[in-house]
Amino acid sequence: MKLYLAPGACSLADHIALHEAGLAFEHVKVDLRSHTTADGDDYYEINPKGYVPALVLDDDEILTENIAILTWIADKLPSLAPEGPLGRYRLLEMLAFISTEIHKQFKPLFRPDSTEEARAAARETVARRLAYLAGNLEDDFLFGDNFTTADAYLFVMLLWSGRMGITIPEALAAYVERARERPSVRLALQDEGLA
Ligand SMILES: N[C@@H](CCC(=O)N[C@@H](CS)C(=O)NCC(=O)O)C(=O)O
């Protein structure tokens, strides 16, 4: 199995989740400006969408989109999803929230041509979404004591928030530090040169 990633990008979530699941995989870095892989391949030939993450499975099928990849990984190790009859759907609900309501809201902050108004509005939207999650956090992680693939995704969003000067609620600042202690997180950060 091969994970195509860019250091510190959203693909870090999939990287952490693969380590959590204990699955055997290699990772290949992608230069998102030139769309060239560290192996020297044209990334568009591998993933025509041109963005990371992409996971090439052992049968050479390619899976893209964080929501799909993080659900696939949780299906391999069910403790990476919340328990209960609705567990898989609660995971999808949370992954969709993080993807559409948090991840995608960062867009103006990454675009060099964004106005200051657009940047301020993006910071405010993300801060509001984080406040919602912080208000619902009861235990160590999003669904209790168990770290799920949604936590891997939220962890990356919180790293970005810190970098972009977005206010992180106290409960989530402590959450980041708890997540950092996990071997999967340490390993992925180290592999991506971010430790
Ligand atoms: N819808 C995709 C979006 C992934 C995405 O935004 N990837 C960014 C890095 S975090 C990227 O590769 N951007 C470069 C590009 O779009 O060319 C998903 O959720 O997997």
Lay out the secondary structure.
Elements: E1 2-5, H1 11-21, E2 26-31, E3 36-37, H2 43-46, E4 54-56, E5 62-64, H3 66-76, H4 87-102, H5 107-110, H6 116-136, H7 149-163, H8 170-180, H9 183-191
Helix pairs in contact: 1-3, 1-7, 1-9, 3-4, 4-7, 7-8
The chain binds glutathione.
Shape summary? globular
* Tally of strands: 5
> What is the structural class?
alpha+beta
pLDDT < 50 runs, ≥5 residues:
none
**What small molecules accompany the polymer chains?**
glutathione
What is the chains' assembly state?
Answer: single chain
Can you describe this structure?
There is one protein chain. With 195 residues, the chain is of the alpha+beta class. It has 2 domains: 2-77 and 185-191, Glutaredoxin (3-Layer(aba) Sandwich), CATH 3.40.30; 82-182, Glutathione S-transferase Yfyf (Class Pi), Chain A, domain 2, CATH 1.20.1050. It is built from 9 helices and 5 strands. α1 (11-21) links the parallel β1 (2-5) and β2 (26-31). α1 (11-21) packs antiparallel against α7 (149-163). The longest helix has 21 residues, at 116-136. It is globular, with a radius of gyration of 16 Å. The protein starts with a strand and ends with a helix. The mean pLDDT is 97. The chain binds glutathione (GSH).
